[in-house]
Amino acid sequence: MRGEVVIAGIGQTAFGKLPGRSTYSLNAEAVRHALADAGIAKDRVDGLFVKFPTSRFEFMYGQKLAEHLGIVPRIGGVWDQGGAANASLVGYAAMAIAAGQCEVAVVTFADNPKSGTRQAYDKAWGNDEIFGWFGIPAGYAMIAQRHMGQFGTTPEQLGAISVVCRANGATNPRAQLRKPLTLDAYMDSPMVVEPLRRDDCCLVSDGGAAVVLTSAGFARREGISAPVPILGFGQGQTSWEVALRPDLTTTAAKASAQTAFAMAGLTPREIDVAQIYDCFTITALMSLEDYGFCPRGQGGAFCASGAIALDGDLPINTAGGLLSETGMPGLQLILEGVRQMRGTAANQISGARTCAISNQGGVMHTHSTLILGQ
Amino acid sequence: MSPAAFPRPDIDDLSAPYWEALGKGHLLYQRCLSCGTAWLPARSQCPGCLGPDIGWVPASGGAKLISWVVYHRAFNPAFEDRVPYNVAVVELDEGPRLISNVVGLDPEQEICAQLHLDQPLRLAIRHEQGVAIPAFLRAPE
After folding, report:
1. What is the pLDDT of residues A115-151, one digit of tens each?
2. Which end of chain B has fewer CB within 10 Å, C or N?
3. Contact A248 B82 (CB under 8 A)
4. Does residue A137 lie in a domain region?
5. Which three-class secondary structure state does DSSP give residue A8?
């Protein structure tokens, strides 16, 4: 399937605080822009793949959204993998296209946790509230503590990721947070759940994004102007409860990346630019290790070496990532990957021909990888 | 404003033996009578072989610290007067893992300065709002 399916169009709303906008409205705006970018009429869309708004579950959301968009899909629906879902949906949409189940698929996501509710993010894990075990940051902090103890990873190394993402966001006109961060300011930011500080944690954002997929053949026949081929994709998963994982410092990213690299016929060394899910700094650091961009346990040194900056060997999160562009779970990273492959990114990496994208959900429960090319 | 309600465990028929034993001073885990897999929390089938023949077994109380975090802000109002407090992942000598707290730390010292990975622990059941729950003390190396 390598290269058989392309991303034909991308679209998004503004990112930030968008009071008064429903998730239906945000999705519709993103889909309108994505179809316009692709140059494909809405009535050609016969697949609609949706991640429901993370902050509030709604029964049959995919069907309600299809009605709102005036689309009658042959295939589609809602997929629930937390923040891994968007990259996974691109993979499912690609498989559906390759299997003849649809011809033009839209993957879309929108949420409004900044102006609406964010209760879903503060809930207890399992039945362990009585121990004071609450909130998503704590799960990542538990993993980070083990990584720091096992490999000597330091706060300054985690901070290097925040500094890079904030620098990239500062030069991205679309970013929600355009204020650069120094390492000193990072170190001074308050602890949330130790060892994670405020500036280890991603933004909370309202907004929507969408991508349009079709076959490479359709793109040729219809004269799509800037199709970006999907070279590979993969997924991985682990236990729901963080406590039950036999090894806290290897994540589902490893299996996910291996599947995607094998499908693409590429190795990590052949990736020019990467969009690495950074809901928390530790997530990006461990994903870089599990993808094979650096050895296990060396993620801290790799990030602090400058390798992930715009002028480094593997620039990451060139639009600012979840730490600076928008806290949206993952689809914005796919949009930025498409822009890098088209050569139209705000922080364009000169000569970049391959892009790896990671999405992950829950507390590293789910992972999904995309590899884009030209 | 009345104080925030303290969370209580959701005890059902499946987990009742676990909570009742804690009240009597014992920490139990489940073991599959068919394949020997050991685990927590309570399940109605073995996560190894999916078999239904399961026994409750008392843990020795020996354990080690897999990781921990320190809350510097409360995510639930009931914990506001407890910050900073720790939550830990603990592995019993018999294998099952659970979420718990390390107790008996010196409040004058930083929590993280008193803990390290794989530190030996021993069970010290404590009572929280009338519910017996597992906690762990640091044990000699």
Report:
1. 987 766 666 666 789 999 998 899 999 999 999 999 9
2. N
3. no
4. no
5. strand
CA distance A28 to A8: 17
pLDDT tens-digit profile of A41-70?
999 999 999 999 988 888 999 999 999 999
B99 in contact with A, Cβ within 8 Å: yes
Residues A144-201 pLDDT 10s? 999 999 999 999 999 999 999 999 999 999 999 999 999 999 999 999 999 999 999 9
Of the candidates B70, B101, B111, the beta carbon closest to that of A131 is on B101
- Asked whether residue A212 is assigned to any structural domain, the reply reads yes
Interface of B with A in 51-90 (CB under 8 A): 66-73, 75-76, 79, 82, 84-85, 87, 89
CA neighbor of A46 nearest in space, from A68, A66, A27: A66
Give pTM, 2 decimals: 0.96
Contact assessment for residue A178 and residue A169, using Cβ atoms and an 8 Å cutoff: yes
- The CATH number of residue A17's host domain is 3.40.47.10
Interface A-B, measured as beta-carbon pairs within 8 A, has a size of 96
In terms of Cβ atoms closer than 10 Å to its own Cβ (0-12, 13-18, 19+), residue A148 is buried
**A34 in a domain, yes or no?**
yes
Considering the domain boundaries, does residue A131 fall inside one? no
Q: Compute CA A352 distance to the chain's CA centroid, rounded to the nearest angstrom.
A: 19
Q: Where are the domains of chain B?
A: 16-138
Cβ-contact A315, A274 below 8 angstroms: yes
Total number of domains constituting chain A: 1
The answer to whether A160 touches A303, Cβ cutoff 8 Å, is yes
Cβ atoms B54, B21 nearer than 8 A:
no
Q: Which domain holds residue A69?
A: 5-115+203-372
The pLDDT score that the predictor gives to residue B6 is 83
